Records
---
Amino acid sequence: MSDTTDDRPEGNDNSHNAEAPTSSQHHTPTSAGADAAQTPAASSADAAAPRADTPPMPTRSPAAAAAAWPPPAAGSVQPGIPAQSGARAPYGAPGQPGYASAPSGATAPTGQAFGPTATDAHPTLTVNDSAPTAPRKNSAAPRIAALLVAAALVGGGAGLGGAYAGVNLWGGSDASTVSGPTAITVNDPSSVNDTAAVASKVVPSVVTISATGTSAGGTGSGVILSADGYVLTNTHVVTLDGQTGDAKLSVTTSDGRVYAATVVGTDPTYDLAVIKLENASGLTPIEWGDSSKLNVGDATTAIGAPLGLPNTVTTGIVSALNRSIQVASSAAPSDGSDAQETEPGQESPFRFDFGQGQQSQTATETIKIAVIQTDAAINPGNSGGALVDDEGKLIGINVAIASAGGSSSSGSQSGNIGVGFSIPSDVAKRISEEIIDNGSATHGLLGASVQDASGIQGATTTGAYVAEAVSGGAAQAAGLTKGDIITKFNGIPVTNSIDLTAQVRALAAGATAEVTYLRGGQVETAEVTLGAMSQG
């Protein structure tokens, strides 16, 4: 933004003074007698009067004179300024020049464009461009601005404040001061991109969690759900992967506040947990997104505390949807229903991303979860943190990474290899709400023992092969029998037994779903009402 100017002539323009009424200082003698009758003071004034060829001096400041002048009539030609062709908008209309002043409603000049208070400043003439202005290129500024304004509304001083959005995107060249600690650093306000805008909105809603047990400790991340301190994270973060049920929890917000916290409830089946900060208020809740509307290739941003480094931001895309993984977990409930057989030598390469701690080497159970796959860097300590879309809305809770050359139960640490996983927000939202309301969450149960169809002799397709339909279970009630191959669950492709179990567990007990299966080479469908998985 540059200083605005006025089309009116300067206060000492001779053409104006020629038309102005004369004053006692610039009087014209009327007669010789009158001259003789003047007092010595008057004679002295005459002697000091300016000569005809000397520019007259103004009797008041140009700023005061300019303020008293009425605006020129529409279409009028101003003295000293060449007439312009074409119609011109009335003075004061949008896009027309005016006096350099603060925006409407401001109590003081704002930003560098206005400079110091203009008490004696001279209005200046507009320099009209001789060439038409080239059209501006489309940019992401409107969307970035919306995110920055949203950050100002929900984040206060923890993000980039409203003054930043107002001054640095559309006026001024100096960053405005934001009260309180700043979690996102911007050194060049003129080149803020989408990621910085997303981060400024989301970082105030992500916390760092430190869990300490009797003989172990670790760090992770969490997402703020409410202003009074409900936080969503992973079960393996708050239980140190099942090693303790009473870990001491310390939570640090993005602006440096530290709170003690207690566990509201855990859900080992989907590795989610809700904790409550003590005596918390005024926190910034995350905004939920809709993970069911994601597309492969959509932009993603992961925010958390890898290796205990808070407010870390990484970016990527949605690499795959409807992915299912199996992860070893010491906190997983012991449940033999809907069981799968693991082929020898096929140990899962997926592991929880523990931060500053080691995964338990004694895990005997596994969990099967549906996830979003992303190449945004997810490292040990990102567990429980946010995966958001390009609007800063929560689409997933970061949970696990793939390791190269290791396994989920080896206890070895590894970093990002571009394959990270997040629990979809639609699943996380349901489970977190049930935990807050009831202390625990429910999960569906199909009531069948299934295997990978591709491993069955003579197999011609992938899917989940029904080895047994438990008597009285949901599968049997829906008409499924041994030998059926389930290929879809609620329209989502099922390529193996892990896919099926993960999708069943994502639903609440009592939910209904449509199952597509092959029987004798024919495609059949059935509606199944899921039972309730035991939490024992």
---
Amino acid sequence: MRTFQGTPASEGLAVGAMRLLRHTPQGAGRAVQDPAQEERNYRAAVRDAVVQLERMEKKNTGADRDILMAQRAILEDQGLQDEVLGYIRAGAGAAASVERAAGIYAGRIRALEDDYMRERACDILDACYRVVDVLDDQPRQVLQLDSPAVIAADELYPTDILTLDRSMILGLVTAEGSPNAHASIIARTMGIPAVVMAGRDFLEECDGRPVAVDGFTGEVFVDPDEATKARFAHSIRLRRRQTLSGLALRSVPCKTRDGVRVSLYANCADSRDVRAAVEAGAEGVGLLSSEVLLLAGTGAGEAEQVAFFSECLAAAAGKPVTISVYDIGADKVAPGLPQNEEPNPALGQVGIRFCLAHPGLFRTHLCALLRAGTAGNLRIVLPMVNNRRELDAVRAAVADARADLRARRLPYAQDVPIGVMVDTPAAALMAEELAADASFFTVNPANLAQYAHGVDRSNAHVQQYFPHVSAPVHKLLRMVVDAARPGNIPVCVCCANADSLAQAETYVRMGVRALSMPTVNLLPMKETLMSMSLHSGQPAEGLRAPG
């Protein structure tokens, strides 16, 4: 037995035979024609690749479809096309030119500081190699599985997973990759155990061999011994029993042992996430970020946004869905949008500041949200609001959007609650004033900690200064709870990671009565809260949940 240590990308356990998916550039035997013909070949190949992606889009929904749309946008990007055509006109063949441009563009993306954008390099390679396959007259390789297997690859492209028979995938292991890559995100959505960054030595001896994959620890065992197989079998049976127990628990209201009701919501990215959350017992969506549409390059048009948001609201089946307006800034680069060079992006034109600085883009966004609001129970939250002046500016923008929709005679949601995302100490300190106009508060403890302690949470060099439990953040949160109580304004805290999950009891004891978290944490959170007692006396004073 050999053990390889990778990085967990999707929780779960898998045991089975390994099948290797190879991404092999053809290269050999290419005949280079004159530049004019190579250019015609390239343009024709792009059209063919776009048609392939459009066909796949029709077979997929939600985030999967968005990924395919983003890849189509990549192939139609004028900058990329100019790069390819430059190499062709210099005498290179079309296929080699696409490979070279793809490598350069992917390298540029991987050099960015933003984690989300850095992992989009894989989408560039995936899209461009589809064009290369057309030019080489080679069908896109699809691994044919006749029995369930664990899939291994140097790096998995999103379309690798989307073209496989999902019922045949036991687990995923890659030599490289990242937990933030689209393939990893898809794996988590599908509930497939996955490990990334297992190393190239792993690939050399894995094909056809029995393996055991631990998506919790990142360990991969090739040729597992009997003890390891028995341990995995026991753990898999135990998790199945826990799942059956969770199925019974998910429909039970969450109450502490002394009867305090706590509402549990889910953090989601698309309609598939929303459906999964509702099925897992979520009482709604506590936070759905809208900027994924821009970051993925799927377009900022009103029609595209209406379709996306309507899908998400419909998937919630009448439960409340809180959608954040664009939280775009200089540290989140969105293709095709104006960007300013800023020395300190986290303190620059981010959140609502970006929206108010781009009124045309913001009006389109608000119109799309209001139109989609007819499909479900919409609530809008505003990130990085620090004072009533900013909140008033947003309310004026919403009024303009409504007037625009009336002029166009388009139906829209009339009474949409608008809340404030408490991201900064300033927002917490001004909570009493903001409570006069905010319909609800959503608190982001991670952002509060970043600004309260002056630590960039994405900077690996200062992570030792980023607190997992923060007394200043607790004081700021208590200010928000106290400010919200006179008007009975709902307060929801986003528990985005295991650390905030562990602090749930602290939040509830402060008076918070609504928590939002990844879907996978809903049942563990419910079990934790239902086993605790706030005190033995009267029920704790608290705030109502959003509804």
